[in-house]
Amino acid sequence: MTTPVSAEAPGRIEFSTTDPDLAIGYLQSAYGAYMKVSGARGGHVYAHSRLDGGSFAIDEAQMPLRVELRQDPFNALVIGTLGAGRIERECGGITERFVPGDVFIDADPTLPATLQMLDVQGQTVMLDLAVLAQVATTSPTRAPGLIRFTGYQPVSAAAAVHWRRTVSYLGEMLGNIEVARQPIIRGHGARLLAATVLTTFPNTALADPTAQDRHDAMTATVRRATAFIEQHAHTDINMADIAAAANVSIRAVQCAFRRHLNTTPMAYLRAVRLNHVHHALLTADPSRGATVTDIAIRWGFYNHTRFAARYRHAYGVNPGHTLHNR
């Protein structure tokens, strides 16, 4: 049995077969890697699914065979979570072995790697390196340096749990057809994933503001940044965009917002978007099909529970009350 690529949702792929030759060809195409296979068995289910968010993707795979995979460097960071089976990986002269429950970076993205896998079932998350650099960079006017990971496993058990929860959250997001179509939400998801990578795995990204950053954290910086946010809240803007508009570093913008507004740039952006939702609810006509969900998603709020809580905190009523009691 073979299941073709599905068109049920944007960016979603589903594949399954009991033909090992077909499975091997498909997996080589999906991952762009050479695979040397032994122990392939007919009658077993080989399955793969992908939720594609553009600059990141979440895969689930089931491969009941022994496979050696030779992987060349490519423009993505790959992070695995092993559900069943065993994996041994060699990269940069370092060999590591992984068992069910382990979370790990597949390989240094700048180096080739060889992976030995036996009857693997698990998840892989791929993230565009440009998004990772964007989140970690200290200045929009300076090309970011290469982020180097000093270890391939989480810094703590708690960090691994947080990683799994973040990926689960993003999987739910991409699994919702209407939500997955919104560039604002996909962009937020990619940057959330990148930020989680940087807190989960040991790396060389600079986190502290410099003396110049603190000097630039002036009220003029806040004025330029807030003006840009208010003019572009309907688009998928990020911290690098806001800092570039303010003509300072990302950390200078963050310092300025904390110092003068007691908030963060992204929290300010969420508040501006929430205000747009409020005005849209005041002017929308539910008799013509307007719904709270559609309006909230349009402005980047896809989790209804969190959105409703924020709305009640800001306006004292549920969003449905605003829509139906104008």
The CATH superfamily of the largest domain turns out to be Jelly Rolls
Radius of gyration using CA atoms only: 22 Å
Provide a count of the helices: 13
Tally the beta strands.
Answer: 9
According to CATH, what is the class of the largest domain? Mainly Beta
Q: Measure the end-to-end span.
A: 55 Å
- Mean pLDDT, as a whole number? 86
Q: How is the biggest beta sheet arranged? A: 9 strands, antiparallel
Second CATH tier, the architecture of the largest domain: Sandwich
Structural class: alpha+beta
- Structural shape: globular
How many domains? The number is 2
Poorly predicted segments = 1-9, 138-144
Reported by name, the CATH topology of the largest domain is Jelly Rolls
Helix content: 40-55%
The amount of beta strand, in percent, is: 15-25%
Element-by-element helix/strand order = EEHEEEEEEEHHHHHHHHHHHH
